[in-house]
């Protein structure tokens, strides 16, 4: 049996749900094929404000996520680098995240991912679970659809004008685009992780922070998921692989014992016994990219395309933002506003820039001979944002560096409210002078004007999200505008 869609999405994780929703919101016909049946387990539990307040708002799911009871995360606490004492960062260190948007969540991914997938269904995506994709179908050098097995074990084909592969790190079809993965020379670590049925919390206001603590063999993450559930993972050098494979649970517990800051939080706390948290899991070879992210008819998003070391919790952000960029290219090509090659080139340029910023920064971050200030300085150097060092670090750690309105939706909302209020004060004459001049929107407009003028004079780079000549984004965030 054959069916035809505007878009076929492979994989129903955050990348797949985002791409599918963003294209269905424009009224297109979208099929999403997911191998498993949700809820399903996934690692990657610490989110960024860009996802929670930006992408989730754009997908129409932010309120549901906010109501789900996930642990609020205000930032991170790090026993990292040469300082023996833990230091911390909070998302509120950047002025672009005013309260209450300077927060994210620590989530059980089974629940978070299901919220995103059901939302995709609600906006009209046809979701088929228990439907693994086997291969990609191409005609005349263009991808035209996929072959999959349905719930009954019957082989089927689905034809699509576009295919987005969002089937994660285990993707069987990513090599259709750009050949084999290119593994990072620098990030060769492996991760072994499991769960405790509770655990002490950091003192307020940091009780919901991710805690990352370096020790001799690598570093540990400590993520408070619920009062009675803590995710604890060790990221260690590849030479420990044999020991981990021999006895994953023993190796994991040895790593925790080797790190007094984390061990102390877990004294006398039992291991989790509820599925799926009753297992110790191992992941390796997870830092990679691709030489190309699209071919005619098909694009990659999320872990299918790339991932880099988890210490800054950037995975779900890169997955959802990359998926949105791909969806914009699809929407623009479908409505004929931007030629396919132009739209996908924009997708790839922006996605690579976002990935590249994390990759470059993380190389500096793994230098353990440095201190907090030096890491903040590196963030400023890599991001080139027009803010102080600490704020630059918070921008990076919050997923805001692109400056894309889709990750800054909350800021746009807050700034718009401020403008409304200023207009009100102007209208009722309660303020002398012009209150509009002190609002962020007006200040930003002047700054952009100054930047453009400066660029025209000196040809200098802009801090704007994409290079000169790049496409701009439609007001709803879902497509590129006609150049
Ligand atoms: P996935 O979430 O993997 O979803 C892919 C989906 O595709 C799955 O549901 C799968 O069942 C489906 N699928 C697979 N094959 C097929 C097929 N053939 N047909 C149909 N469907 C298929 N990220 C963070 O943001 N925060 C963190 O704290 C964090 N910690 C991490 C720790 C470690 C050790 C690692 C390795 C990663 C971590 N990540 C973290 C990264 C995060 O796990 C991923 O970046 C994120 O899950 C990517 O989402 P995705 O939608 O691309 O893929």
UniProtKB/TrEMBL annotation:
InterPro entries: FAD/NAD-bd_sf (IPR036188), Flavin-dep_Halogenase_NPB (IPR050816), Flavin_halogenase (IPR006905)
Record carries keyword Oxidoreductase: yes
Phylogenetic lineage: Bacteria, Bacillati, Actinomycetota, Actinomycetes, Kitasatosporales
Keyword field: Monooxygenase, Oxidoreductase
Family indicated by similarity: Belongs to the flavin-dependent halogenase family. Bacterial tryptophan halogenase subfamily.
Single Gene Ontology MF annotation: monooxygenase activity
Entry-linked PANTHER family: FAD-BINDING DOMAIN-CONTAINING PROTEIN (PTHR43747:SF5), FAD-BINDING PROTEIN (PTHR43747)
UniProt protein name: Tryptophan halogenase
Protein source organism: Streptomyces monashensis
